[in-house]
Every structure is written in C-alpha cells, then in structure tokens.
Amino acid sequence: MKKALCIVTVLAVAGLLLSSCQNKKQATESVVGSAGNTAAVTNIVVGTGNKYEPYCYADSSGNLIGYDYQVLVEVDRRLPQYSFSYETFDFANILLSLGAGKIDIAAHEYEENPDRRATYLYGDERYSDYDSWLMVHADGPWATINSLDEIAGNPNAIVGVNLGSNMEAFIKTYNQTHTAQIAYQTYVIEAPTLLLENLKSGRWSAALLMLVMAERYNKIGNGLRLIPRGETPAIESGAYFIFAKNNPALKEAVDGALRDMKADGTLARIYKEAVLDYFANL
After folding, report:
1. Closest CA to 243 of 120, 153, 116
2. Percentage, residues of the chain above pLDDT 70
3. Which residues of 116-140 are buried (b: 16+ CB within 10 A; e: fewer)?
4. Does domain 38-129+239-280 have CATH number 3.40.50.1580?
5. Which of 53, 57, 64, 108 is closest to 219 using CA atoms?
6. According to CATH, what is the number of the domain 133-229?
7. How confident is the model at residue 208 (pLDDT cuts 50, 70, 90)?
8. d(CA 145, CA 134)
C-alpha cells in the first residue's frame, strides 16, 4: 500500500513539473546562442494597416507586403531577442491599440506631431522621407497658386488633407497661429476617390501630398494632372515607428537596427524595391 502511494505521489509531482514546463514554454520562447547559452525571446506585436499602398498593404491572399512590413521583417531578423507578429487595423485604430497595450509597435508611416509625441514614444531613426508638397490640378482653376498663404483667408479655397495625418495637424497649427485661416477638408487615405474627384472638379483648390503619391494619383485619376507648386515642400517631414512610453528598450533596439540598415544600404534597397519600383510599374 505504501509502495503504491509512493508511486502515485511521484507520478503526481512529475505531472506538475511537466505542466509547469509546458506553461513556461507557452509564455516565453528561447534561442540558443553560439556558446550554447539560451536567452529569452520577447514576442512583439506590430500594429499596421493593409490598404495604404505601397507602404502598408496586403496582396490578394491577405499577406502583408508593404514597405513598412518589409522594413520590420529585416529589423526582426537583426534582433534575435525579439520575435515580431503583425495585426492589421484601420489607420485611426492603430495608435488607440498601442495606447491600450494591445500592440507594441505602431507602423503606418507616422510623421511627428506634438500631440502624438506627448502620448507615445517616437523612434529616433526616420525610415521614410515624407515631405509634402502643395499639389494642384494642372488643368484646374487653381493651377497658378504657389503657397498656402495665397489660399489662406479665401472662403472659396479648400485644401484636401488625409484624415488624422501630419498634414491635417499642420493646417490646424497654421490656423492657430495665423489670422487668415485655411479652409480644409479630409479624406481617408485607404479610399482616395474623394480627393481625386474634388481636385479634378475644382471643388478643392489643392492638396498636401508626397511626390510619389501625386504620381500614383495621376495614374489612377482618370485625367487628373497633379503638379507641385512652390520651390520647396510645404512640410518637410519623415516617418517613424512609434512605441509605448514604457518600452524604451524596444525603441532603442529598433533604432539600432535601422541605423545599421542605413549604413549597409539595406534600407535604401528595400525602399527602391517596395516604393520606387511600385510606382514605376503602375
């Protein structure tokens, strides 16, 4: 009887140990280094979009293939202490998910503005240029304007900006610091039909756009001919990955990988293949 009880006890302890090991395996992963030592691997959830070509989008099978995704795949490859997975959201919900702790990195060509910087942790390394130009329809009634100052104060002049973008934040700041106001309306970048129709018809006077996006819209705009006005961009900016404020270690690691990718030419190669070649082949 004692022998049977002893066997049952041993089996119970062994079962507990096995269960404990399985639970730990589910919570953390490990990698084996060259010296045979193991190190914990932290799972990182990236929140991004799937409708903003060529930066954040998916192929016909639903697989992410955009520029931001390809950059992060390479970053992940260079950071063995992390393992990245991806979840897609509408643009407006990505930062909300970051603030709620549902994701660890927000990736959607985020430019810098004071409100976002007060709430989230920006990376130091720009991974995409995002200069915005004042664009007008070459055959429209506003084709000769050269600056936003010429539009300010004109109730009939409307500027189109992407909802929630740095362009919208820029216009809001302009209006707060100038007596003559700029009238603007927003569109959703995942569905630019409103932008294209309003610029072509003349209902909107201009839009703030990157050169590459203007080229894309010219190809799909059915007669729209966007041209930049002015000698310099209306907004000089770039895109950054955004992190939760309580995770500076992740931010530093990603910054380091991006610096190395710039130095060895990898970032420039990915940009050419994912962005420049995309627009060239439209």
Report:
1. 120
2. 87
3. beeebbbbebbbbebebbbbbbeeb
4. no
5. 53
6. 3.40.190.10
7. very high
8. 9
